[in-house]
């Protein structure tokens, strides 16, 4: 049966060739569309590296010197402001609604700041590779506030202990040109351009993302801020106890000691999840637009396939009738029709793959943003998904017209022969 089908398809090679080309163009369009959609939403499959639920932020502000509430510290300004900061932090940590609080400088996710640094191994021979990442600084309790995830199974308390010892945490890296973070664990390192200060890398944590929609690059370098001498840090990260977010906000609004201490006051109490939603609003709109466009194009393609294969089956009504008269079962006839569609799809998929890879390599498409974040296996998976989508489209396009054609009485089907 298969040989007869292949022989018949070879005899009709002109019509089949054009259909293969049409299917290849359709497959190529779907393939590129899937890659574009993946470039927009595929990054959401990567862990954020922190738990944003029940996390709030506060900003430290200074009372203007012209305000009647301003206190002149004189020569003790630096020491007095340090006391103000510590007093505010003590009040926050003493709240029954707070689980943990930490000073933060670019340590939180969903913040688009990027402080690029390179960590290099201490050795007699200069380290020419290094580890590249976004430098983030925070006091030790940031490990508990963000519930940082250790790649080696360490607890948040253990990670906080490393930071108290002024050790450094690095993350898994997304740069092929960077040293692997596992090579740094337990070793002495220094930052590029700073050969005086040396640190020990304590552990590897999950990469702290800037956005769920941004493809990560490089790694994360988390340094410690002295809890008792935070310097000019202007952000406090707070984890409230589960279900206590509203209570904490009310407590903050009704507790003057939590809001201000002499010349320093706290403002802009914000949920980290709200900051995430605000920062990602544009990306979410773009992702929805891509998905909507993809669904619309798929519907148009399926309608096109339905029309093409409907016409093709209608041309073979007499052939189907003759086969039924000769004893062919409905299952055999239907299998032959579907089998022909699958053979055409196989040739079309092969042609699509050749065209895509030739264009991809010789047109240097890997330099475009849509392909710059894609690994080869992702592109192959999109090709497989394309083949599955077109296959389903062909089956659905053949199912209905083939079923209607097989219901026609042979005498009626061949009356004009």
Question: Could you explain how this protein is built, in words?
Answer:
This protein is of the alpha+beta class and 417 residues long. It is 50% helix and 16% strand. Strands 3-4-8-5-7-6 form a 6-stranded mixed β-barrel. A hairpin with a 7-residue loop joins β6 and β7. α2 packs across α11. It is elongated, with a radius of gyration of 32 Å.
Structural class: alpha+beta
Distance between the termini: 25 Å
Q: Order of helices and strands, N to C?
A: HHEHEEEHHEEEEEHHEEHHHHHHH
Note the total helix count.
14
Radius of gyration: 32 Å
- Write down how many β-strands occur, each being a DSSP E stretch of 2 or more residues: 11
Strand order of the largest sheet: 3-4-8-5-7-6
Architecture blueprint of SSEs:
Layout: H1 2-11, H2 13-41, E1 55-62, H3 77-93, E2 98-105, E3 116-121, E4 131-138, H4 142-145, H5 156-164, E5 168-171, E6 188-191, E7 199-205, E8 219-224, E9 235-240, H6 245-254, H7 256-259, E10 260-261, E11 264-271, H8 272-279, H9 281-314, H10 317-325, H11 330-362, H12 369-372, H13 376-407, H14 410-413
Parallel strand pairs: 4-8, 5-7
Antiparallel strand pairs: 1-9, 1-11, 2-4, 2-9, 3-4, 3-6, 5-8, 6-7, 10-11
Short overview:
The protein is of the alpha+beta class. The protein has helices spanning 2-11, 13-41, 77-93, 142-145, 156-164, 245-254, 256-259, 272-279, 281-314, 317-325, 330-362, 369-372, 376-407, 410-413; strands at residues 55-62, 98-105, 116-121, 131-138, 168-171, 188-191, 199-205, 219-224, 235-240, 260-261, 264-271. It is 50% helix and 16% strand.
